[in-house]
Design a protein that fits this description.
The protein is mostly helical. Among the domains are: 120-225, Receptor-associated Protein (Up-down Bundle), CATH 1.20.81; 231-296. It contains twelve helices and no strands. It has helices spanning 2-8, 11-29, 31-54, 61-82, 87-136, 141-151, 156-169, 174-184, 188-203, 207-256, 258-265, 268-292. Helix 5 packs across helix 6, helix 7 packs antiparallel against helix 8 and helix 10 (207-256) crosses helix 11. The radius of gyration is 26 Å and the shape is elongated. The model has no long low-confidence stretch (mean pLDDT 76).
Length: 296
């Protein structure tokens, strides 16, 4: 009996039992909250799987979903243990941590995709030069794209061109394949190239000269963007430091003087103050990001 009693009174087992009971309570009493969590997790899951597919990565859907759930539950449980023995705060922050992990993975995948899209645009200058030279010597658009793939093997632009050629080999028209590329990589430079190629293929015209003009336009745009990034780099770094400073101070307080930190983490008034601080930090971070972000 003593062994069974000690087993069920173990903090890990007790936390799992309490978490299960709270889940059942909220499932019966507040189904809207669980519906909200379900919608957020499903949206994040679809977004992550979509980005993985667009990046042409070989990852089984079942494993991706399993890793997402494992990461979410693991992070939420770690947050819960960090707040132990305060069950109310632990369960609340654990649920928030679970949701934030899903949203964090989604944002991370978006950032990875944006970087890949930027690589495609950055490589378009060199790729369009190769295509221009190919068209000038009498090659077609698809043959010029094959030259780009050979010369820029392994690059993001070469992968996109290879996907277009694969689809044309399966019966899709070049125009439709280029339109799909434009939808995947929603960048003005890609749109300009796709629209120009599709129009010239229908109406006729000097494709080589048009590709040369597009290449020069993209090169000048990149010069302006790099100059703007250099000028706003200091403001971006200041925004990141200011946003992270309160959390670092709270962490230092928790390490050096845990008793005072408990006033923030262990009382209702402290929770309200912490929520207000988080909202203000997020609002300030968004405003500073908008200030230092200049669209060209």
């Amino acid at each position: 009996m003593d062994a069974i009693k000690s087993f069920f009174l173990h903090p890990l087992v007790l936390s799992l039992v309490v978490g299960a009971l709270v889940f059942v309570f909220f499932y019966i009493r507040f189904p809207g909250i669980l519906r909200f969590f379900k919608e957020k997790t499903l949206n994040s899951q679809k977004e992550v799987l979509k980005i993985i597919d667009m990046m042409m990565l070989k990852a089984p859907e079942e494993k991706v979903v399993l890793w997402l759930w494992a990461l979410g539950l693991g992070f939420g449980f770690l947050v819960f243990l960090a707040c132990w023995p305060n069950l109310v705060l632990g369960l609340g922050l654990g649920a928030v941590g679970f949701l934030c992990s899903w949203i964090g993975v989604q944002q991370f995948m978006r950032t990875v995709w944006e970087r890949r899209a930027s690589q495609v645009v950055n490589q378009m200058v060199e790729g369009l030069v190769i295509m221009t030279n190919g068209v000038k010597v009498g090659l077609s658009i698809t043959q010029s794209m094959e030259r780009v793939i050979k010369n820029m093997k392994g690059g993001a632009l070469a992968q996109e061109f290879q996907l277009i050629l694969n689809k044309t080999h399966l019966g899709m028209s070049v125009e439709e394949a280029f339109n799909e590329m434009e939808k995947r990589i929603n960048r003005p430079d890609v749109t300009m190239m796709v629209v120009a190629i599709n129009i010239l293929k229908e109406t006729g015209g000097n494709i080589a000269e048009t590709l040369s003009v597009i290449s020069e336009t993209i090169r000048e745009r990149q010069k302006v963007e790099n100059k703007i990034k250099a000028l706003t780099a200091q403001g971006t770094m200041q925004a990141m430091i200011v946003s992270a400073a309160p959390f670092l101070m709270l962490l230092m307080m928790f390490i050096t003087d845990k008793q005072k930190a408990q006033l923030m983490l262990g009382t209702p008034l402290g929770w309200i103050a912490l929520l207000i601080i988080i909202v203000l930090i997020i609002t300030g971070g968004i405003m500073m990001k908008k200030i230092v972000t200049i669209k060209v």
